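Data deposition worksheet. Section B asks for the primary sequence of the deposited chain exactly as it was used as input, without tags or linkers unless they were present during the calculation. Section C holds the resulting structure in token form. Section D is free text for depositor observations; keep each observation to a single sentence. Incomplete worksheets are returned to the depositor.
Section A, Depositor: J.P.
Section B:
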Amino acid sequence: MRIFLLLGLILWGGQTGISAQGVSVKTNLAYWATTTPNAGVEFGLGRRTTLDVSMGYNPWTLNKSENRKAKHVLVMPEFRYWLCETFRGHFFGLHTGYTYYNISGIGVPFHSGTRGNRYQGWATGFGLSYGYSWVLGRRWNLEATVGVGYVYTDYEYYDCITCGDYYGRRSRHLFTPTKLGITLIYRIK
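Section C:
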């Protein structure tokens, strides 16, 4: 809940500069490859700063007989500092995020032993990212981004079979990759 309040305050406080600096809509193609519909909006805040707010939602069960799924909802705002000018070239970012998830029957990258159970819970964290945006045309860009950071997660875990045995509740602190994207961007203004 705190993340939504913080996001609202940032957007409300930066509205005077948004209209003059540019707005882009975007979608992360790498995220689509995981069957996750997603969209984002990036607002120009200054000559070299932007605010990117991306969201994703995956409601699918990948294989019902094996209860394989990666269901989740994710919100990830990021403040970006561009080395030359906004929406082109190199940038560094500071991001945060919140996700609620229900994952089973699949391995979670960088976390061994996750394939055999079902995990249901939430996670939040923050991280640093680096990216580059290529101008493809007058209104189109392609962006690559990678980030690492800290994540706190609180979850319940179960036997992977549907309605499986409840094993308990855990929380973890992780230093892990937090962002990966190949993003198609359309600049509105």
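Section D:
The first helix runs from residue 2 to 13.
Residues 2-187 form a domain with the Porin fold (CATH 2.40.160).
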